[in-house]
């Protein structure tokens, strides 16, 4: 399994930090594998179902460090516009002293207050498709702070890029037909890039016609 690490700051390329980041990457991969087992069992599926649907051990993963500078007029900008993560699952290691992540609940934005020594876990669009929308991906955005800078580290755990992703047959019934047509992760990424950030409308637009 190959993991691509993407960094926003050049100091992360120094050798003394590479070893730490490499070890961190291996541990969060293990955590994602455990979470997929739990999510599979909670759907009434075999515990390896979601991992196998992702491609077994040949998954795709990357890590990104985000830096949000302070802004004197935060109401005039966003650190990151509204979206749901296109992949499978995101583990976010947030800045505990400065809030910034917000999730949509109905028509309101709720600020997430990080708990010390804890990750924030976002379900992505691919798990929504695989679960036939029994799990929902999380629409979220990032706001900036007027007085403090903020750093967060996001680890993206994604399906293998060329495997068709579709609702699990075990979760399809006459009363709950498949909501989505098959599409590979590569095809989906290309699809959303042509549309740009549009909240959760990308995954919703994949719904198959009734």
TrEMBL record:
Protein name stated in the entry? Fe2OG dioxygenase domain-containing protein
Q: Which UniProt keywords apply?
A: Iron, Metal-binding, Oxidoreductase, Signal, Vitamin C
Q: Where is the signal peptide?
A: 1-17
* Keyword Oxidoreductase listed: yes
Family to which the UniProt record says this protein belongs: Belongs to the iron/ascorbate-dependent oxidoreductase family.
GO terms, molecular function? L-ascorbic acid binding; metal ion binding; oxidoreductase activity
Tell me where on the tree of life, at the top rank, the source sits. Answer: Eukaryota
* Pfam families noted in UniProt: 2OG-FeII_Oxy
Query: By its UniProt entry, which InterPro entries does this protein fall under?
Result: IPNS-like_FE2OG_OXY, IPNS-like_sf, Oxoglu/Fe-dep_dioxygenase_dom, Plant_2OG-oxidoreductases
Q: Which residues belong to any copy of the Fe2OG dioxygenase domain?
A: 58-159
PANTHER family tied to this protein = OXOGLUTARATE/IRON-DEPENDENT DIOXYGENASE (PTHR47991)
């Amino acid at each position: 399994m190959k993991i691509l690490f993407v960094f926003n700051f050049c100091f992360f390329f120094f050798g003394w930090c590479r070893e730490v980041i490499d070890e961190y990457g291996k541990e969060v991969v293990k955590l994602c594998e455990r979470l997929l087992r739990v999510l599979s069992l909670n759907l009434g599926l075999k515990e390896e179902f979601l991992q196998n649907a992702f491609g077994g051990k040949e998954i795709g993963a990357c890590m990104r460090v985000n830096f949000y500078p302070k802004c004197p007029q935060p109401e005039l900008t966003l650190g990151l516009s509204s979206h749901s993560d296109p992949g499978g699952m995101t583990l976010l290691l947030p800045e505990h002293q400065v809030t910034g992540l917000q999730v949509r609940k109905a028509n309101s934005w709720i600020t997430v207050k990080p708990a010390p020594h804890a990750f924030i876990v976002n379900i992505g669009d691919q798990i929504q498709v695989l679960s036939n929308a029994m799990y929902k991906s999380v629409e979220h955005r990032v706001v900036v702070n007027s007085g403090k800078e903020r750093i967060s580290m996001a680890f993206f755990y994604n399906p293998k890029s060329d495997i068709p992703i579709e609702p699990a047959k075990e979760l399809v019934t006459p009363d709950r037909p498949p909501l989505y047509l098959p599409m590979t992760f590569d095809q989906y990424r290309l699809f959303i890039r042509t549309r740009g950030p549009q909240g959760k409308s990308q995954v919703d637009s994949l719904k198959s016609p009734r």
